Amino acid sequence: MKFILMVAALISLIGCSDSNKLSCYNDRLTTYKKEKLYVQLIKSAKKEIPLLNDEHGQNLFKVPSYIDSAMIDDAVFFNQDKNKCLLFILQQTSNKLYLDQVLIIHGSYIKGEWEFMIDRLPAVPTIIYTVRKSGSRDHPIENSFKTLSEKARLFVLTAGTVGNYGCSIDNMYWFGDQNQ
């Protein structure tokens, strides 16, 4: 009986930890949105990211026919120095497919301007995070952009070596920076 209670308590704590991380990050994002650097970053992202091409030379917003709609999310994850960041392109796929996806974009602040890329090899590869749709495989229901954003945020917050509390990300994992 004690074992069952301990397992239940552990499961409960793990679930709370994820929602606490997301809540912590959302509070941080609210603060970021008031900062000049964030405003400049988002303005630049909305102008530059739609012009990016993937490794095959295809535009990220017009690529494969299986992408029904895409948008740049408002979530931004900065490194400690706020000279590098992660952003998301949320992509809803065709209703014939069972997975939606989030493309993680890397940004670097160089000489007063934000530059964006889909990979920074060799340190950080291209990362596409997939999110299963609800419904049956025959009739999948696409995720809302809000759901895609929340799942991608939690993915970034929990990937690599991170603590159980707070909303810091693993700089080495995401940015390949040993100094950060």
Descriptive overview:
It is a single chain. With 180 residues, the protein is α+β, with helices and mostly antiparallel strands. It has one domain. The chain has helices spanning 2-32, 36-48, 145-158, 171-175, and strands spanning 67-72, 77-78, 84-93, 99-110, 113-117, 127-132, 134-135, 140-141. Strands 1, 2, 3, 4, 5 and 6 form a six-stranded antiparallel beta sheet that branches. Strands 7-8 form a two-stranded antiparallel sheet. The model is unreliable at 1-16 (pLDDT under 50).
Shape: globular
- Secondary structure class reads alpha+beta
**Which residue ranges are poorly predicted, with pLDDT under 50 across at least 5 consecutive positions?**
1-16
- Helix proportion: 25-40%
What is the total tally of β strands? 8
Amount of beta strand:
25-35%
Helix and strand succession? HHEEEEEEEEHH
Quote the distance from N terminus to C terminus.
Answer: 45 Å
Mean pLDDT: 82
Number of domains: 1
Query: How would a textbook summarize the main sheet?
Result: 6 strands, antiparallel
Number of helices: 4
Measured on Cα atoms, how large is the radius of gyration? 18 Å
Q: What is the strand and helix layout of this fold?
A:
Blueprint: H1 2-32, H2 36-48, E1 67-72, E2 77-78, E3 84-93, E4 99-110, E5 113-117, E6 127-132, E7 134-135, E8 140-141, H3 145-158, H4 171-175
Antiparallel strand pairs: 1-3, 2-3, 3-4, 4-5, 4-6, 7-8
Helix pairs in contact: 1-3
